[in-house]
């Protein structure tokens, strides 16, 4: 793999700066060699599959019997319009996203402000707040199932307050909200750290100047911190929306793959997964995947508009 | 007076939220140490706690838990090393070497980062099953050896490193490959550390893909195994939680050791 360059050119090239730079940077052969693994891997395992998925979304395709596949035009996409279960999944996912994103973003900012302030044991709190983020969603789901059980710890606390307990994760009305709570708990630490980095990038003299001008902490927050965090907020909102629309693991574990009770935890990705690998309707599943892609893309573009031009990534 | 009250309120919030984040771990650990007859008891004296469930899980005849652990380690290591090498090579080329098609390649990498992973779920499954890679280490590793986000991260990093050192080494006769390994990679330690943590943890916790790509007990990774454990063992919460803690505690230890780099890694990659 190693190639040696011929040494004789050294002497000539050491002095003129322009020539040296060119020789050093222009090197097509090496450029291709260095990027070859990535080009191969991306083509075979990402770009190829994306194109094939797009093709599949216009086919009636069953993995079990590929010979019977046939072109059905937009049928898979129009089917989305009348598929009740898909509508339920989309409704659940939107509800989940609408509930989780705002809570997550504001809580992340609050926690970042806290661990960025002059508190005792700062490192301890940073670690404590961040810990849920590094834990597997499957382990977290199992832990929360246990905590939210009928005879679990949550109900024990609630009974102290006189609230009647229930099997939260098995309840049509409460299963999804319980998972939303869990989702905020698991992921907020990650966004907190991003906010923390954003806070530390704000020059301290801005605050000093504001203080000289007599602005209190609240006004400083409103006129300095929030506006300067706008790009960070944009990034976090986008990441949070993308993440919530792709939610799968928690629902899969908690409902044992089915999205129950009564489809109350059925999300778009969980439905896609079941359509593809239980019903083996892979063409239809691919149409669902592209629908998801379109939704995420549109939401991202809307947010970009909303947050203004300067937040271009 | 007001100030003191505010301080009290502030610390209540700070400590309260820490209890919320640590509580579930502590409670699960506590339960995982309860003997089977005590499962439904909320509180048992600490002297009644036992490690039997952990022993039970690791040496179970029914579940190859130790094998799942090994699978997670092996798959995680292979995927991490692959990403470190390949992403860095490509990131370096995109930052430093001019070649026709470079811009196109970079644009493509940025574009595919936008596509949600679920889009390729079906085609990848078909591809891997045609290759006979379902339920094999190859299926669990080869498709994941490269990550566009990692390439992007490395490119940004290399752009920010002054190029004089590499240039000098190159002019002194070190080959491009040698310059890369002996000069560039050692300089990239912080970026490599951040990537290692990200990719290894991501892989360790990943569920959807391994769940799809494995079908026999012996090939499961820990999350997939834990999910079946919960699926079939329903009532033995002490065993299930012992399994959950078994896969969580190593991560927590690693996290606490590398905490500084970890948080730095997230903050630098999150904003670039």
Automatic annotation (TrEMBL), chain A:
Annotated localization: Cell membrane
Transmembrane annotation, as ranges: 30-55, 95-115, 127-148, 174-197, 228-248, 282-302
Chain ranges of the ABC transmembrane type-1 domain: 90-303
Biased segments, Polar residues type: 1-10
Keywords of this entry: Cell membrane, Membrane, Transmembrane, Transmembrane helix, Transport
InterPro entries: ABC_transporter_permease, MetI-like, MetI-like_sf
Membrane topology of the entry: Multi-pass membrane protein
CDD domains: TM_PBP2
Pfam families: BPD_transp_1
Chain intervals for the UniProt region annotation (Disordered): 1-23
GO cellular component: plasma membrane
Main subcellular location: membrane
UniProt superkingdom: Bacteria
GO biological process assignments: transmembrane transport
Keyword Transmembrane carried by entry: yes
Keyword RNA-binding: no
Homology family: Belongs to the binding-protein-dependent transport system permease family.
Protein name in UniProt: Carbohydrate ABC transporter membrane protein 1 (CUT1 family)
Organism: Desmospora activa DSM 45169
Top-level taxonomy: Bacteria, Bacillati, Bacillota, Bacilli, Bacillales
Automatic annotation (TrEMBL), chain B:
Chain ranges passing through the membrane: 7-27, 68-92, 104-128, 140-158, 179-201, 236-258
Compartments where located: Cell membrane
Superkingdom field: Bacteria
GO cellular component: plasma membrane
This protein's record includes keyword DNA-binding: no
Topology relative to the membrane: Multi-pass membrane protein
InterPro entries hit by this protein: MetI-like, MetI-like_sf
A GO BP entry: transmembrane transport
Residues of the ABC transmembrane type-1 domain: 69-258
Keyword set, alphabetical order: Cell membrane, Membrane, Transmembrane, Transmembrane helix, Transport
Family: Belongs to the binding-protein-dependent transport system permease family.
Protein's UniProt name: Carbohydrate ABC transporter membrane protein 2 (CUT1 family)
């Amino acid at each position: 793999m190693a190639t040696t360059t011929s040494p004789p050119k050294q002497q000539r090239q050491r002095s003129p700066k322009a020539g040296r730079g060119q020789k050093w940077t222009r090197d097509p052969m090496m450029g291709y060699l260095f990027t070859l693994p990535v080009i191969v891997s991306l083509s075979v395992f990402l770009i190829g599959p994306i194109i094939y998925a797009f093709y599949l979304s216009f086919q009636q395709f069953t993995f079990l019997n590929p010979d019977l596949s046939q072109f059905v035009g937009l049928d898979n996409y129009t089917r989305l319009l009348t598929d009740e279960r898909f509508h339920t999944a989309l409704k659940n996912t939107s509800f989940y996203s609408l509930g989780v994103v705002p809570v997550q973003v504001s809580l992340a900012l609050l926690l970042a402000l806290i661990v960025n302030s002059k508190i005792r044991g700062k490192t301890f709190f940073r670690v404590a707040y961040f810990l849920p983020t590094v834990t597997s969603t499957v382990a977290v789901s199992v832990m929360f199932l246990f905590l939210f059980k009928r005879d679990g710890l949550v109900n024990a606390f609630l009974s102290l307050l006189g609230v009647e307990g229930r099997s939260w994760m098995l309840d049509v009305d409460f299963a999804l909200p319980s998972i939303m709570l869990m989702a905020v708990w698991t992921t907020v630490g990650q966004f907190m750290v991003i906010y923390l980095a954003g806070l530390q990038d704000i020059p301290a003299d801005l605050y000093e100047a504001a203080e000289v001008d007599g602005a209190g902490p609240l006004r400083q927050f409103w006129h300095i911190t929030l506006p300067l965090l706008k790009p960070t907020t944009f990034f976090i909102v986008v990441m949070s929306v993308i993440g919530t629309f792709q939610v799968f693991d928690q629902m899969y574990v908690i409902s044992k793959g089915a999205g129950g009770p009564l489809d109350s935890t059925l999300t778009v990705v969980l439905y896609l997964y079941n359509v593809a690998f239980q019903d083996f309707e892979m063409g239809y599943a691919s149409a669902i995947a592209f629908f998801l892609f379109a939704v995420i893309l549109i939401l991202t573009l809307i947010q970009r508009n909303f947050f203004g031009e300067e937040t271009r990534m | 007076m007001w100030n003191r009250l505010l301080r009290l309120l502030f610390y209540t919030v700070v400590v309260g939220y820490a209890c919320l984040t640590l509580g579930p771990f502590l409670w699960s650990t506590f339960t995982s140490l309860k003997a089977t007859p005590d499962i439904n008891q909320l509180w048992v004296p600490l002297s009644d706690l036992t490690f039997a469930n952990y022993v039970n899980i690791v040496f179970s005849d029914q579940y190859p838990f130790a094998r799942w652990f090994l699978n997670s380690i092996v798959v995680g290591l292979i995927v991490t090393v692959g990403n470190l090498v390949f992403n860095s090579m490509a990131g370096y080329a995109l930052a430093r070497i001019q070649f026709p098609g470079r811009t196109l390649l970079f644009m493509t990498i940025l574009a595919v980062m936008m596509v949600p992973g679920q889009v390729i779920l079906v085609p990848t499954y078909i591809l891997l099953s045609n290759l006979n890679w379902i339920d094999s280490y190859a299926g669990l590793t080869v498709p994941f050896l490269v990550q566009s986000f990692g390439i992007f991260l490395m490119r940004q990093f290399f752009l920010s490193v002054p190029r004089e050192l590499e240039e000098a080494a190159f002019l002194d006769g070190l080959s491009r490959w040698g310059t890369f390994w002996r000069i560039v990679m050692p300089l990239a330690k912080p970026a490599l550390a951040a990537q290692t943590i990200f990719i290894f943890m991501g892989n360790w916790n990943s569920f959807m893909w391994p769940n799809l790509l494995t079908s026999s007990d012996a090939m499961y990774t820990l999350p997939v195994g834990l999910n079946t454990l919960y699926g079939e063992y329903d009532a033995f919460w002490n065993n299930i939680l012992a399994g959950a803690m078994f896969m969580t505690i190593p991560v927590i230890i690693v996290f606490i050791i590398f905490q500084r780099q970890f948080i730095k890694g997230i903050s630098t990659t999150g904003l670039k």
